[in-house]
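Try it yourself: sequence plus guanosine-5'-triphosphate, in.
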Amino acid sequence: MTNLQADSRIPVTVLTGFLGAGKTTLLNHVLTANHGEKIAVIVNEFGEVGIDNQLVVGADEEIFEMNNGCICCTVRGDLIRILAQLMEAKLGKGKRKADFDRVLIETTGLADPAPVAQTFFVDPEIAENFQLDAIVTVVDAKHADQHLDEGHEAQEQVAFADILLLNKTDLVSEAELQKLEKRLHTMNSAAKLYRTQQSQIDIKQILGIGAFDLDKKLEIDPGFLEEEDHDHDDDVTSVFFRELRPLDLNKVEQFLNEWLIDHGVDTFRYKGVLNIKGVKKRVVFQGIHMLFSSYPDRDWKSNEVPSSEFVVIGRNLDEEWFRKRFAECVAS
Ligand SMILES: Nc1nc2c(ncn2[C@@H]2O[C@H](COP(=O)(O)OP(=O)(O)OP(=O)(O)O)[C@@H](O)[C@H]2O)c(=O)[nH]1
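Structure, out:
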């Protein structure tokens, strides 16, 4: 392709950020914003069953899920396969038809973005059809210091960002924000940083910006285009529960509070959609370390069986204890 030809490849935005930073909130903001673009979404979650796909606003037919493993470890497989399927769907060749102008990939909070980005350069078919537009990393202002101190996934996500959204600015002071901004700038001075609440950002600042610069990434990581194994924090595991019988919300909160007293630091993320006795709507439950909340969201759809699905992600999770206590939350 010469410089004179317009690039007709489909732009791809990769959303990263540690567990609970605000990626799904950003995705929902993008999907509901009035930009006139059709967006295909690929959601990858940590854990065997996805909760996020239930929390993404009314765009069922556009969501492609990847729950068979971490996106950064399965790039050679699942991501390439899904992108190829998307291309077929766009060209009307596959079983599924899809009309879209761009692709948004929400990675798990534990994903290293580098191997995801790599896919768009090293796989010829993907490189021919898709163009990496930007890596957008959402940072949780409240918990970022802890996550950056502890694990290399959070560090990689910041280091590889083209855009940094310093989110949840409502939860910390101006002084803390400035300190964190300094830290982020030291780690990645090339990224543009925006402060946000509820991941509210002008869509024009994150989509169609052509911010991904391969040369700059090669400066950070000279081995970027070479396949390499990467390590994960193997201590992090997840426990998933499902229950058809209605639950008692007080009991759920009580057992989580008990757990969090001693394990709040290690409990990165817990979230779910719950079927609560006496509540007609489904209840969405969101937790990050010691902070949690829940709210009635929408009526169950006619094709949904009201049930509770809940996932906990963290270190040193006592699966047996969780299963026992969760079972005790069934309403009497
Ligand atoms: N106080 C506050 N809460 C926020 C803000 N942005 C998002 N949240 C909340 O943080 C929680 C996690 O947000 P998500 O968008 O689900 O985060 P995520 O990065 O997609 O989480 P995972 O996919 O589990 O890694 C939700 O309860 C959001 O409502 C913010 O700016 N301020």
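One thing you can check immediately is this: DSSP finds eleven helices and twelve strands in the chain.
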